[in-house]
Amino acid sequence: MPSKRKSQDIEIKITLAGPEAPERLLANDELVFQSGLLEGLRLTGFALWMTKEDKGEGFVSVTFPSRPMGSGPFYEYVRTVSGDAKDLRTLKGAIVAEYKARLAEAGGSDPEADSGPGGASANE
Fold this sequence. Notes:
The protein has one helix at residues 85-106; strands spanning 3-7, 10-16, 25-33, 42-52, 58-63, 66-68, 74-76. By secondary structure, it is of the alpha+beta class.
């Protein structure tokens, strides 16, 4: 069953990856809107991945729903109004925190616990 956390009328729902998921996929996530114009709607397509840095230290990375723009970069559906990446880092940090809470609830181990320094990345 997905984990739920409500914050500012938005619920973060985490669904842990199953055994047939891609190798580094940890979980999928969606935002459920609880009030306002978007009440009753959800934004899906977020994913949490275990990554590896050059030094072999892994961390959890959050990807946002997006689509390709021709052969160039991807167009992300979640973007800041101000252009300040701090707002995206805040959202990614909340998603990683909810993932860790869901993992603890399920009795799983934190994939970052043995990875040494680095921790969760909300800076992507």
